[in-house]
UniProtKB/TrEMBL annotation, chain A:
InterPro entries listed in its UniProt record: MetI-like (IPR000515), MetI-like_sf (IPR035906)
Location of the ABC transmembrane type-1 domain: 87-279
Topology term for the membrane: Multi-pass membrane protein
Species the sequence originates in: Pseudoruegeria aquimaris
Annotated family: Belongs to the binding-protein-dependent transport system permease family.
Entry protein name: L-arabinose transport system permease protein AraQ
PROSITE patterns: ABC_TM1 (PS50928)
Gene name in the database record: araQ_6
Compartments, record wording: Cell membrane
Highest classification ranks of the organism: Bacteria, Pseudomonadati, Pseudomonadota, Alphaproteobacteria, Rhodobacterales
Coiled coil region boundaries: none
Superkingdom, natural source: Bacteria
One GO BP: transmembrane transport
UniProtKB/TrEMBL annotation, chain B:
Originating species: Pseudoruegeria aquimaris
Any one GO biological process: transmembrane transport
GO cellular component: plasma membrane
Keyword Cytoplasm: no
UniProt protein name: Lactose transport system permease protein LacF
Membrane topology of this protein: Multi-pass membrane protein
Organism lineage: Bacteria, Pseudomonadati, Pseudomonadota, Alphaproteobacteria, Rhodobacterales
InterPro entries: ABC_transporter_permease (IPR051393), MetI-like (IPR000515), MetI-like_sf (IPR035906)
Gene responsible for this protein: lacF_4
Amino acid sequence: MMSVSTQDTAIRTGRVTRALIYLVLLLFGLFYLLPLYVMVVNSVKPLDEITGGGMMNLPRVFTLEPWAKAWSSAQIGVDPTGLQPYFWNSIKMVVPAVAISTVLGALNGYVLTKWRFRGDTILFGLMLFACFIPFQIVLIPMARMLGLMGLAGTTWGLVLVHVVYGIGFTTLYFRNYYAVFPTELIRAAQIDGAGFFQIFWRILLPSSGPIAVVSIIWQFTNIWNDFLFGASFAGADSQPMTVALNNLVQSSTGVKEYNVHFAGAILAALPTLLVYIVAGRYFVRGLMAGSVKG
Amino acid sequence: MAHTADADFKTRLQNLLPKLVLSPSLAMVLVFVYGFIIFSVYLSFTDSRLLPSFGWVGWENYSKLWRLSHWEISLRNMGVFAALYISICTVLGLGLAIFLDQKIRAEGMIRTIYLYPMALSFIVTGTAWKWFLDPGIGLENVLQTWGWESFRFDWIKNRDYAIYTVVLAAVWQTSGFVMAMFLAGLRGIDNEILKAAQMDGASNWNLYRRIIIPQLRPAFLSAFVILSHLAIKTFDLVIALTGGGPGRATELPATFMYSYTFSRNQMGIGAASATIMLMTIAAIMIPYLYAELREKK
């Protein structure tokens, strides 16, 4: 549970109004929880309970069979491998991509705030706009480029793609965060003879925790959840989880095993959901620390 | 004071270092973003089909594109989708933020529940809603087994209504995030002004209408920019939820581009559609980013 103190508002409301407000908030709470409830409840019941009209019911027979099947034996594409190998493909892609884009973002943010030069705002603007382009515009040349670089269909190819289209955001976060960091401290260190990397390492990095968390959570969520790049550039042994889940759900052969689909969907959602529940509060706090305009 | 050559080199390196550190990122962005944009725009004027080819055909791909009913349907769907998605998310986000700003008990827990869909992949969202809305096993079937036998809800299978199920799932995913943006804006408003207005006998309704909501302008602007760019980029959700169907009822420009480029071997037309998508987003983003970056100087 996130616990940020409720701020004092000047607005006063009567009893009836308050009851209505609570009612509306509760109803929307149910609306947001509904799909999660549907996924969880149906992932632990036998298929016939779903097809028999019991989608909203709690399971009569509790079974973890659909989870086991989704993880290790469901038919994905041509092979009955389950989602397991694709889960590891995603991990192998996400970890380096998040690490590299965060380090580059930190260095870029440092340069763009503490070593300013003519035209740096324009360069930053160019990097920032790159975050918002519809990626359809780069799909065709990117496919060619990955082929030329010998990275077509590989995990490293996907890492490259995610780093390239992620550094705009990581740079933005670190730039905003470092912008409010006192420049006098940097100048003082310079007078004492500290170099570019020493200043970064000793002065800025130790206080970069909150914004690093923001950058890591943001990148992790975006890259884990990406589908377009995975579907366009991944090969048989680098397909990420989202593409595999879509293949599982859309497969037109055999009986539709809804319970397995729901279990698979939860497996695909679990890593980002866990990160959100465990670290969500640090995300908001870090963003707030960076959003103070300098 | 004489500088030794060595010290001179060191100072120059120190002066160059910041730019050296920035240059790999910059080079990547220039090649992979701007170089690629130029390449794709160029392809949209060529006779590329299965593979890029460089025979210049002028505006032919564009004129073909605008004559395709498939493209026209994608655009019309985008119009319906974007208008509803942006307006519903904004109204819902603002409403929930105002309600949540009334010293609500368990506010933290409610916020967590409203926001968690944002952490999910659109493929997961699409899968969950696809089966929940499926008339065979989902809501329609459930209410019928509960005894409401005449209940019908087959929007996801209905050409005229399927686009609204995409709106529903997309609103479910992002409205909590918009709520958080407005909540942050509400928390930044000075209470003293409100108290003064209350002294003068202003009602809650008037406080919101005259004082609070006008002060939320920056939040409205950010919400609009973020939602409109998300709307234009919507791809995975449609793939997972409806696959563009039934028929072409939920095709959007992003799915159009993908199928023309990669499965119909009409790369020139695909590139032309991507160029139009880029121009639309640029028309929204560039003025916004320009204003944001200027402000900070």
